[in-house]
Design a protein that fits this description.
The protein is of the alpha/beta class. The strands form two sheets. A five-stranded parallel β-sheet has the order 2-3-1-4-8, sandwiched between helices. Strands 6-5-7 form a three-stranded antiparallel β-sheet. Helix 2 crosses helix 11. The chain binds BIS(adenosine)-5'-pentaphosphate. The site of BIS(adenosine)-5'-pentaphosphate (AP5) has 37 residues, from helix 2, helix 3, helix 4, helix 8 and strand 6.
């Protein structure tokens, strides 16, 4: 069995009353990244790999909602119950519910080891709320990575995805199969297929992405932090492309005597 890939992200997955078994070490220049891209493009897979390399926390709003869905029915607020229904249909959870959840866990965003946001922000409203929070705390984004892939390959990735019930590691039945079918390589948890990876939910998710999330590409381009990256090839190749681009951005920011707003790290 491999060593676990990541810390347990308990505070992010279960809320502020939970404590992570491993908190990120303080860094002089922590990475603060947003991963953008259509559902299934490979954001979660890259977030795991980037976490190993950069040490920043992987914060996925989708994982936090799915963790809330596992709680007993009576422990879920009416807003959370409604959110889980939106997810099942492949629609976006309303901004107010998403922001409430992120705000409750803002210590994960403000932590001194940095973050890799996966699946948030997803609307212009969410992006504005995050910008406001970061400005208030005098924090700057390192970069916004936008992964690009043709739709047919995205559908193929989504329909073959399997996720670990326990540690949330992601596999693919043909592209990244586990060593033992149905069993996680990292923690031996059971692998399952997400409800929103059914064909009808995939269609809704891709339409929703085009309508609500794609406009964020322009939003972050205007802020000078957007890095488009081709999501073709193996995860390791995509990781190498990502590391190369963000390293170039970091050295450009360091070289500039007067760093531009939005790219300061
Ligand atoms: P969320 O969990 O965020 O899902 P998503 O954005 O739809 O993204 P996915 O997790 O489906 O895909 P991914 O890009 O992470 O790909 P992965 O790495 O797994 O959100 C789910 C739902 O929650 C939303 O629909 C919404 O309802 C709600 N929600 C969450 N956040 C919200 C927000 N901020 N606002 C409103 N609603 C919100 O990879 C996919 C597959 O491909 C895997 O099997 C993987 O092994 C494989 N793969 C990855 N990379 C490669 C590669 N290079 N080559 C071959 N296969 C690969």
């Amino acid at each position: 069995m491999h060593a676990p890939l990541k810390n347990d992200r308990l505070a992010w997955l279960q809320g502020p009353s939970a404590e992570c078994s491993e908190t990120p070490a303080a860094r002089k220049n922590p990475w603060r990244l947003i991963l953008l891209g259509a559902p299934g493009v490979g954001k979660g897979t890259q977030a795991d790999l980037l976490t190993e390399r950069l040490g920043a926390c992987h914060l996925s709003t989708g994982d936090a909602f799915r963790a809330a869905g596992k709680r007993r029915d009576c422990d879920q607020s009416p807003a959370m119950k409604a959110a889980l229904e939106y997810m099942r249909r492949g629609e976006l959870v309303p901004d107010s519910t998403v922001w409430e959840m992120v705000r409750e866990r803002s210590s994960c965003i403000l932590n001194c080891g940095g973050f890799i946001l996966d699946g948030f922000p997803r609307t212009l409203g969410q992006a504005e709320s995050l910008k406001e929070l970061m400005e208030k705390e005098k924090l700057a984004l390192s970069a916004v990575v936008n992964y690009e892939l043709p739709v047919d390959e995205i559908v193929q990735r989504l329909s073959g995805r399997r996720t670990c019930e326990q540690c949330k590691s992601v596999f693919h039945v043909t592209e990244r199969p586990p060593q033992v079918e149905g069993v996680c390589d990292h923690c031996e948890g059971r692998l399952f297929q997400r409800e929103d990876d059914r064909p009808e939910a995939i269609t809704v998710r891709l339409e929703t992405y085009e309508r609500s999330t794609a406009p964020l590409i322009q939003f972050y381009e205007n802020l000078g932090v957007l890095l488009p990256i081709a999501a073709k090839g193996s995860p390791e190749k995509i990781l190498a492309r990502t590391m190369q681009k963000i390293a170039a951005l970091a050295s450009a920011a360091q070289l500039a005597s007067q760093p531009q707003s939005g790219v300061i790290r």
